[in-house]
Amino acid sequence: MCGIVGLHLRDPALYPRLGSLLTDMLDQLCDRGPDSAGMAVYGDPVWSPPGESTVSLLDATVPAPELAAALDAELGITVTAIDLAPTTVLHAPVDADTLLAAARRIDPAARVIGFGEELTVVKGIGNPTELAHRFGLPAASGWQGVAHTRMATESAVTAAGSHPFSVGPDQCLVHNGSFANHMSVKHELERAGVVFDSENDTEVGALFVAGQLADGVDLEKALLLLNERFDGFYTLLVANRESFAVLRDPIACKPAVVAETPRWVAMASEYRALANLPGVEDARIFEPEPEEVYVWHRQ
Known about the structure:
By secondary structure, this protein is of the alpha+beta class. Helix content is 26%, strand content 30%. It comes from Nocardia bovistercoris. Keywords: Glutamine amidotransferase, Transferase. Its EC number is 2.6.1.16. InterPro entries: GATase_2_dom, Ntn_hydrolases_N.
């Protein structure tokens, strides 16, 4: 069944509350996905300090202190490693590609689940609310956040199979539903040289969108192309460092509700996840139309 929540803040006065608001939203939808959960936060000064890049690793085989020390020696700079098991968050004053490549050299078995200048991704197995508190999400701040509660259907219950899927710089995608033809799309992408890290159908959609963005297509067009290429029932929330976007399948089978105020835009699988947001009583509230891409840009 799965549950999606996302919050895009327009008012900087709300940035310190991002994590606490997102945690409450996530908590409301635990029953939609008790298997595992993932969260993506944009702009937290602890996880993604200004002027530094961030890389999120899953199931690192090297303990966080040893990994930081090895990266210090490898790069000749100070690298911070935050242990949020099973996620390890790295940040350093170097570009994301350099930090990512060094992390892969030192711990090639670890799975990269997020990277960029502002994005931090954390994932785990178990109750979503318990995970959020263990990771410290309520204390996080920033300008945008996305979270997902998962009920596994297309692949095993693993942290690697949980959402969001972040396969491009500062990009993430969360998904409620299933892509019926994801294997045919996956084989096409593999023939083009794309490498997959999981058996999850959502990763296929995420890599399709990331490829379009890398080719210079804007987010709205990338999602329109996904809608043309993928069959199935789905609601998607896609974010990057500039935008926050929602798309539903042609018959809008999977639920979605959006609330918008001058201070924020929020999306969730059910209204109850939005009910405690500040000023929601004055929000414009609507269900996204099928096949229509809704995009909000960072101010």
